[in-house]
């Protein structure tokens, strides 16, 4: 990785009215800099860094914080290159302008996209401070050293950064500030506590559900089953609930507006609604029938074709074929959906937990026929996202209810609302076929059938084992439906990783090869091929977890399962140690080897991998949501099982030492987790898990 970054006008500086220094990161040549932090404009800059006269360095970042740790990791990057004490670094959620460029949290991309810019910003400002000190002392800048916010000369002179602000702002911005070598890092690669940990554990208001302001009303909305419409509503009893002020119908929905959350929820429960056009084909069993029929006919859209799989199949000594099935899943964020909207003739204010503020503003502008310039969006911290808050449906409802009620509205979901309204992980089936000749894999076919979703794209279709066989085919088909689906943690790959890695173990059994040895052998064949992944990096990751898990040398009664996967530009290999206790399978320990490039915060990084593994095995074992006539049959946690503390294994996470730029971390640990468990289960019982949930 290069340790210099050049871009003319990449940074701009200005002197703040209070005497501090403001740095705009990612500016273009025609950008003007504000002189107040009240005027930050993220249409023109990616982020801002403020250096105060008291030595405090504050980063204003536009990226939403959903628990992925960027509010801690991003300032660590700047502090590393700037060489300031960590205790003097702060980070704030940026005030929002009317253009929300780059303000998205999703796809495990926040650190990956901002890493070069933030490093360069810190290094450039440090160089300017060094240059200012060199001019003051009439020495060469190369003779000076910067450390912990202090510049020192060989003669023993010392000066603090904040004393050089006025001199540094007068200097031209250098084009090539040297970056540290990876081995010179002192902060990056260490464990740092989440900057919000104290307010989180003490219950201070941070999240969308905490937001309130004087005069606002609360709203709860009844929504139709998928595909249905509102026929009639009797709101007499609802209006009789103390605190209920209005009942409003819109877009086949019914909103109850009240003076408190409880009154709104109680009022909604008293509505007597008759739905029309209930869809008896929005049914889990019927979806299964359609999907199996689609796979049987084989009329699917081509995604990738390499060689001739049909011909390889006819020449094969053996043909292995398995179908893997996954249900709809809700996101089940800890914090249910909620949003604040205040729609007035002059302006619209939107406040709440969203991963997509720009999209929220745009859809509300279109919904209410308003100029997007009249809309502001403020982001709160989110109590989980997992893709659910990439949708704008709840922001739209809040804005519409505020518009119709002519009052500021706090829209609140119950857990039942959250699970019933949709935006699920799509139901999907994968049929995988392998052609084997002379005990070697010569052909591989991946067929996908998915409900109301585009499914895998061509990039995902080229993930491992693409590039390892001469004849490869990937096809997909979408089953249209009214049920709404959305991105769900590690979109598509969350179950595709389970299917392909479970099948890889089937192949190893057939070929009578060690599961890890087979993958290493196939990855060797992928070297030099045009594939989106690095075979060498995956091999190194596999080798790491093989050594750490003592693969192949487990004590008696311990059954080991292995799986690996590449997604979000990262490589993860996992081993599950499973034991049979009282006749039941128990995952006692997981080992994870991870190559995500340079690890910024080891504490946050381990938390992300551990959370992904628990999410992966928990949903694989228990997660299931069925539909009948367009209505979700599980509506709360008494009907929808999540993994419990007693089910959780000990997890050991190890990172590959790397000089590569950071890549995704919030999602890549999930796809191989269920497969590692299932592959261990086969060794323990001889039974193959083909359908999730395992223990429905």
From TrEMBL:
Domain Aldehyde oxidase/xanthine dehydrogenase a/b hammerhead spans what residues? 202-279
The family database entries (InterPro entries) matched by this protein are listed as: Ald_Oxase/Xan_DH_a/b, Ald_Oxase/Xan_DH_a/b_sf, AldOxase/xan_DH_MoCoBD1, AldOxase/xan_DH_MoCoBD2, AldOxase/xan_DH_Mopterin-bd_sf, N-heterocyclic_Hydroxylase, OxRdtase_Mopterin-bd_su_IorB, TAT_signal
Write out the GO MF terms: oxidoreductase activity
Matches recorded under SUPFAM superfamilies? CO dehydrogenase molybdoprotein N-domain-like, Molybdenum cofactor-binding domain
* Recorded superkingdom: Bacteria
Family matches, as NCBIfam families: TAT_signal_seq
Q: What protein name does the entry list?
A: Xanthine dehydrogenase family protein molybdopterin-binding subunit
Which species does this protein come from? Flammeovirga aprica JL-4
Taxonomic lineage of the native organism: Bacteria, Pseudomonadati, Bacteroidota, Cytophagia, Cytophagales
